[in-house]
Amino acid sequence: MNTRDQVCTLGEVLERATRGRRLEPGDLFSTGAFACGTDAAVLKPGDVIECALEGVAMLRTTVAAPAQG
Question: pTM of the entire structure?
Fold first, then answer.
């Protein structure tokens, strides 16, 4: 995926992500295909998120169900 193909611009992603938060050096944003302007959760247990820096590393995370407490 290229940023030009995304539903939201990078500026919109950053604006939304920084509401009430401060960015720190080294913060990483992994962009995807969420719908801008919505708060709907689109990830569910078992989903896999992959974030890669080509030729450097890949981070793979599996979404888990919330802990029962």
Answer: 0.46
If the chain, 69 residues long, is cut into consecutive pieces of 10 residues, what is the mean pLDDT of each piece?
Answer: 67 85 83 58 81 84 88
State the pLDDT at residue 46: 92
Q: How far is CA 28 from CA 51, 52, 55, 65, 68, in A?
A: 10, 11, 17, 24, 29
> C-alpha angle 35/20/33, rounded to 5°?
15
Phi first, then psi: give them for residue 52, nearest 5 degrees: -125, 140
Q: Break the chain into its structural domains and give their ranges.
A: 3-62
Q: How is residue 20 written in tokens?
A: 């009430």
